[in-house]
Write a structure and sequence with these properties.
- By secondary structure, the chain is mainly alpha-helical.
- The chain has one domain (26-96).
- 64% of the residues lie in helices and 8% in strands.
- It has five helices and two strands, in the order ααααββα.
- The chain has a two-stranded antiparallel ribbon.
- The radius of gyration is 18 Å and the shape is elongated.
Length: 97
C-alpha cells in the first residue's frame, strides 16, 4: 500500500469513528452531569450579559468546575467558550425534542 493510499484509508477510518461517536453522543447527559436545576438558566443570564453577577456561590463553583464560566473583577462572571457551546447544545436538543 502506498503512502497516499494509507493516508486516505486512515482519514476515512477517522471519519467513520467520528460519525459513530457523534451519533451515540448523549447531549442531555453531558449538559446535566454535575449541575443542578437552575444552573443553566443562570449561565444564560451570565452569557447574555444581563446579570454578570447573577450566580450564587454554589452555582459559580459548579459551573467553574465544569469550565463554563470564569471569574473576572469582583464577583462578576463571564461565560467561556465551553459554556456557550453547552448553551447552544441545550438549545439544539430542546428544538429536536
Amino acid at each position: 500500500m502506498s503512502g497516499m493510499a494509507y493516508a486516505y484509508f486512515m482519514c476515512g477510518l477517522a471519519a467513520v469513528f467520528g460519525i459513530v461517536k457523534l451519533t451515540t453522543f448523549d447531549a442531555t447527559g453531558f449538559l446535566s452531569r454535575g449541575l443542578k436545576r437552575g444552573d443553566l438558566y443562570a449561565l444564560i443570564e451570565v452569557a447574555s450579559g444581563l446579570r454578570p453577577d447573577g450566580l450564587t456561590p454554589d452555582q459559580a463553583s459548579r459551573l467553574q468546575a465544569r469550565g463554563m464560566v470564569r471569574i473576572y473583577g469582583k464577583g462578576l462572571y463571564r461565560a467561556t467558550l465551553r459554556g456557550r457551546i453547552a448553551l447552544w447544545l441545550r438549545q439544539s436538543v430542546r428544538r429536536t425534542a
